[in-house]
Amino acid sequence: MKFDSKLIHGGTSYDKYTGAVNVPIYQTSTYKQTELGGEPQWEYSRTGNPTRNALEELIAQLEGGISGAAFASGSAAIHAVFSLFSKGDHIVVGNDVYGGTFRLINTVLTRMGLEFTAVDTRDLQAVKQALRPNTKALYLETPTNPLMHISDIKALATLAHTNDLLVIVDNTFATPYLQRPLELGADIVLHSASKYLGGHSDLVAGLTVVKDEKLGQQLHYLQNAIGAILGPQDSWLLQRGIKTLAVRMRAHNENARQIFEFLEKHEKVAKIYYPGDQKAPAYALAKEQMDDFGGMLSFELKEGSDLKAFIESLQLITLAESLGSVESLIEVPAIMTHGAIPREIRLKDGIKDELIRLSVGIEDVNDLIADLKQALAKA
Ligand SMILES: *Cc1c(COP(=O)(O)O)cnc(C)c1O
Predict the structure, then answer these.
(1) CA distance 92 to 160
(2) In terms of Cα–Cα distance, which of 304, 329, 309 is closest to 374?
(3) Which of 41, 86, 196, 366 can pair with 324 through a Cys bridge, CB separation 3.0 to 4.6 Å?
(4) What separation in Å is there between the alpha carbon of 98 and the centre of ligand 1?
(5) Which residues constitute the domain of residue 326?
(6) Could you report the per-residue pLDDT of 154-165, keeping only the tens digit for each?
(7) Domain holding 99: CATH number?
(8) Structural domain tally of the chain?
(9) What pTM value is reported for the model?
(10) Is 353 a catalytic site residue?
């Protein structure tokens, strides 16, 4: 089955009791057992729920894995994945991963005895140099947020596997529509499904997928033991969102491409970060590793422009955190999503005060460009 069909028919695509073409919301915590001491398929909804299970099968198929798990948020999924490791284990992590991942690492996981080194995962040599005898995993994002850095998953997986490391990729920005890390050698792929997979800014959820049976069992064990599961209502809503992933992603890709072309020619725009920029050094890698370039781009206004006036003049494009939804969302990382990072570190990482991140939605692109145009005129 091709990817677009899998979105709709993958996993358990209908209810086996009634034939309902959508898996029902099994709103139950427990299940009637027919014999004492039997081994029922369903016993308690933290451990397993048919609505969640259908979602887990679906995401496993979409990512080309064999086992999926659904969590209460992307952060809960990340926590479960890091819970595979023990006190004294060392993990090499991309230096520009999601801010909440750093918060979890710096304020929770290091306190529990996990060790981390942050490196630029675009630099294979830097990753190699960060390895220690107790290194157990490499954790990365590509494209990254908000500078759209591209790391070579295949090359990193080769390096990691010669050193017996697990490779973990946060695939939130790309989605399996654009990039399938397991096929490129990663061992674990995870998502904040609150973004593109859900796609409508109406839920918070997380997913993991693996291609190894034992690792799948370990993650299900942790999912049940820690307990940050996705409830049946949100599991259903997420499946509904995923059905239209392909049509949404095609619209995101196309709109972002046209907005990039518009911004590139605009006199008030100093710099644009976009994986589809043919002049960018990472373009060849992005083109090879991804099937298209996605709906995310960041840009800087020329010095002397009025950032506040620009943002506040936008009529259609919404000032908000988050990304990956049908509506276009804009934000200023220095003040919003990356505000917790000390300024010197942020500037060193290339995230300037005037950087703007745009999650291009699927509205009519002419309306989006008109909105940007009138707001830029006021900048
Ligand atoms: C939002 C996000 C997360 C965290 O997910 P939540 O669902 O908000 O907990 C993790 N990684 C990336 C890349 C994200 O954008």
Answers:
(1) 10
(2) 309
(3) 196
(4) 7
(5) 245-377
(6) 999 999 999 999
(7) 3.40.640.10
(8) 2
(9) 0.97
(10) no
